[in-house]
Write a structure and sequence with these properties.
Elements lengths: L9 E10 L7 E13 L1 H9 L11 H10 L9 H21 L8 H19 L11 H7 L11 H35 L4 E2 L1 H11 L3 H10 L3 E2 L1 H17 L8 H10 L4 E2 L6 E11 L2 E2 L2 E2 L8 E5 L1 E2 L13 E5 L2 E11 L2 E10 L2 E2 L3 E6 L1 H25 L5 E7 L2 E7 L6 H16 L4 E7 H6 L13 E7 L3 E4 L14 E10 L2 E8 H22 L6 H24 L3 H6 L2 E3 L2 E9 L3 H14 L3 E9 L2 E8 L1 H5 L4 H11 L3 E4 L3 E6 L5 H17 L1
Parallel strand pairs: 3-4, 5-10, 24-25
Antiparallel strand pairs: 1-2, 6-7, 6-9, 6-15, 8-14, 9-13, 11-12, 11-15, 12-13, 16-17, 17-22, 18-19, 19-20, 21-22, 23-24, 25-26, 26-28, 27-28
Helix pairs in contact: 2-3, 3-4, 3-6, 4-6, 7-9, 11-12, 15-17, 19-20
The protein binds one RNA strand of 73 nucleotides through helix 6, helix 7, helix 9, helix 17 and strand 26.
Length: 689
RNA sequence: GGGGACGUAGCUCAAUUGGGAGAGCACCGCCUUUGCAAGGCGGGGGUUGUGGGUUCGAUCCCCAUCGUCUCCA
């Protein structure tokens, strides 16, 4: 380097051993040895350009300077801020590329990496005093610097900026929410007379609320508190173990399939045009092991059958697997699900009759009605995809989908919710294409050719050299292995039934097609007709009538307590006994409305004092008791709670509450008079004591 | 894929051990007042996400489900 220090720019790795098990005898020679070579492009540039850091080469230094400017700092390479600025530059560059390729910040896998990078950068900015989103201003600079090798970056900087800004806002909100909790934390620390933030508390704040520990440390320092990094790391380790512990178990252990792979290349799928075909049984997997035959009818755990040729579609590309039956003379196997793994189609299900033998020939019959629904839904997603691109823009690309029988879920990138009008237009366009009855064709062609013809491809998908392209005349071209209708007209009706957010920047549309769309309309009409019938009005008048009825109900409810309380407080008061200067009201008011009883007691307490009231009532075979006493009695140590507990025992119940107001219930309605007598006796004792 | 937290009025959030659903802001009305977060009085607004369970009684406890946030792989 210019300053005389050394830096590695290129290394060679000589691979020759396989490492397995504990040392010392854990190295075994590889079948073929090789040399892996790697040279750091940016490091080399740094050498050639005579600068002291990757960050100072011609395609990065301007970005670093831009970050410094946005943050209102002068770039000093040696300072803490210099480090932060470099980190922000690096992260924003990485995220600009990732988001350009439609990897949006999210909660799992690569999406989570993007989210973490963004949050780290925002945190660095915050520690330099940035309180507002700023990262989102930088993607245009990245695009400019990368203009020559990646001109396409410039086409999405606006979208990328929006996504980044949204994530920034979300993280700033997370921090603000955490600040409230931190106040409570420091209050507790202060109260305990401590001066140290416990690692466990910090870890909880981080794992549950996303509040970064670095920031907590900074705040702690401002208040002369230590930060327990060691405890924090220990707590995080424990969290990592808990999270990693429940690792998912592969449904199909690799063992049996690997054995099959050695002798066979895979299953042939023949179901694009047919739903029935003959196939030879080449594998039976039960309890994670290959078997020669299957004889036990009525087994609980599903068994997997592999055929050399099958019309069953294994779940992939969002389309769920087929169901149906395998039949042979004297036997039947119900297929409840079909999966695909390692080139094999796995028929999962239960043997219902006879014996299934390896090598035998079976007739595989797909549930054709269900398959037809799957075709309709799948073709509908392609039309929907095209319509979304048309109305929302080219960024609205597929992020995932689930295609079920006449039911589809389609996830795509889009920053905000879609208003009802646009959604209606999208639905309208899809249905127009259906009415046009466009021919749907699928053909195999080389990947390069498909790309040249402008087929829609999804990022992150690995495509083989020869791909299947599904074309709907003039509307849609997508690479897709799924099953489709022959003409869009067969889809029937497409009805969008939901639009929601799945994660930041990704929206989900749910829709129904064909039969299910029809059923949905029928059900909706039936419910409406039933409602109209009950209300005894024409269908069109249901909304007004319903609001009127609800209002009436509400008014009635409001009026009711007053009416119930009209169990005349004057009468109750007149019938009150006098126990050592205290008025005692014990009465059965007939109804079991606890709220009304409370109201009556409040009224009595306002009218006379000192006073003790216990009201009883029954409704629906249940007894309700409410007792209340005035403040003076409470001060003397009399408790409504203990009073009512003894009384409740008589009616076979329990109760309790606050000293001045208590509630209880029971089931022995016929014992109310007895309970009231008990109530009088007890209050006399309590007042005397 | 797994762990954790949260769902209460339009919004931000309270509610002690399971015992009467509240505050601030916003909204409406009246009064006061020429302004900058106006003030005073009054009012409307709730199936405590949804469905079960335990209990005399559930915002609170248990189970399921949906949704939001978050960390880890």
């Amino acid at each position: 380097m210019p300053d005389g220090s050394e830096v590695e720019i290129w290394n060679l790795v000589f691979t020759q051993f396989n490492r397995g098990g504990p040392p010392p005898d854990n190295l075994s020679p590889l079948p073929s040895r090789n040399i892996d070579t790697g040279m750091g492009l940016e490091r080399t540039c740094a050498m050639l350009q005579g600068v002291d850091s990757n960050f100072h080469i011609d395609i990065l230094r301007p970005l670093v300077e831009a970050v410094a400017e946005v943050c209102g700092r002068a770039y000093d390479p040696a300072s803490d801020d210099g480090r932060r600025i470099r980190r922000i530059a690096d992260h924003v560059r990485a995220c600009t590329f990732a988001i350009h390729e439609n990897v949006l910040p999210g909660n799992n896998e690569e999406k989570y990496v993007v989210k973490r990078l963004l949050r780290r950068a925002v945190l660095d900015g915050r520690q330099m005093g940035m309180r507002e989103p700023f990262l989102h201003k930088l993607p245009p600079m990245v695009a400019e610097l990368m203009r020559r090798p990646y001109p396409e970056l410039a086409t999405t900087t606006e979208h990328v900026g929006t996504v980044i800004e949204r994530e920034e806002e979300s993280f700033l909100a997370t921090i603000d929410g955490g600040l409230d909790r931190i106040e409570k934390l420091f209050a507790a620390i202060g109260k305990a007379g401590g001066s140290r933030v416990a690692g466990e508390d910090a870890a909880e704040l981080y794992t549950t609320y996303g509040f970064p520990p670095e920031l907590l440390e900074t705040i702690a320092a401002e208040r002369n508190c230590d930060f327990d990094w060691e405890g924090f790391r220990a707590a995080m380790e424990a969290h990592g173990q808990r999270s990693g512990a429940g690792r998912s178990v592969e449904v199909f252990a690799s063992g049996p399939l690997d054995a099959l792979k050695k002798t066979l290349h895979g299953s042939d799928f023949v179901g694009y045009d047919a739903t029935e075909a003959e196939g030879k049984v080449v594998g039976i997997i039960a309890q994670d092991a290959l078997c020669d035959s299957l004889t036990e009818v009525g087994h609980a755990t599903p068994v997997t059958v592999v055929l050399d040729e099958t019309p069953f579609y294994g779940e992939s590309g969002g389309q769920v697997g087929d169901t149906g039956v395998l039949e042979w003379p004297g036997g039947r196997f119900d297929v409840i699900d079909t999966q695909r793994e390692g080139g094999f189609v796995l028929h999962v299900g239960h043997l219902r009759e006879g014996t299934l033998d390896l090598g035998g020939t079976v007739t595989a019959r797909v549930d054709a009605a269900r398959r037809a629904g799957l075709r309709r839904a799948h073709s509908a997603t392609h039309l929907l995809h095209a319509a979304l691109q048309h109305y929302l823009g080219s960024h609205a690309v597929q992020q995932g989908s689930k295609v079920d029988a006449d039911l589809l879920r389609f996830d795509f990138s889009h920053a905000s919710s879609i208003d009802a009008e646009t959604l209606g237009q999208i639905e309208g366009m899809v249905n127009e294409r259906v009415l046009e009855a466009l021919p749907v064709a699928a053909r195999l062609l080389p990947l390069a050719e498909a790309r040249h013809e402008g087929a829609m491809m999804l990022f992150g998908e690995k495509y083989p050299d020869v791909v299947r392209m599904v074309t709907m005349d003039g509307v849609s071209r997508e690479l897709c292995g799924g099953t489709h209708v022959a003409s869009t007209g067969q889809i029937g009706l497409v009805r969008i039934v939901g639009e929601e957010s799945v994660s930041a920047g990704t929206r989900r549309i749910t829709a129904v097609t064909g039969q299910r769309a029809l059923e949905r309309f029928r059900e909706a009409e039936a419910s409406l007709a039933a409602a109209a019938g009950t209300l005894k009005v024409p269908v069109g008048d249901v909304p007004q009538r319903l609001t009127a009825v609800l209002k009436e109900l509400k008014d009635l409810k409001k009026a009711k307590p007053a009416a119930a309380a009209a169990a005349s407080p004057e009468e109750l008061l007149a019938a009150a006994a006098d126990v050592a200067g205290t008025r005692v009201v014990v009465a059965d008011i007939g109804s079991g409305d606890a709220a009304a009883m409370r109201q009556a007691i409040d009224l009595l307490r306002r009218k006379a004092s000192p006073i003790a009231v216990l009201l009883a009532g029954a409704e629906g075979g249940k007894v309700t008791l409410v007792a209340g006493i005035s403040k003076e009695l409470e001060a003397r140590g009399v408790s409504a709670g203990s009073w009512i507990r003894d009384v409740a025992t008589v009616v076979g119940g329990k109760g309790g509450g606050r000293p001045d107001m208590a509630q209880a219930g029971g089931k022995l309605v016929e014992k109310i008079p007895e309970a009231l007598a008990e109530a009088r006796r007890r209050i006399e004792q309590l007042l005397a004591g």
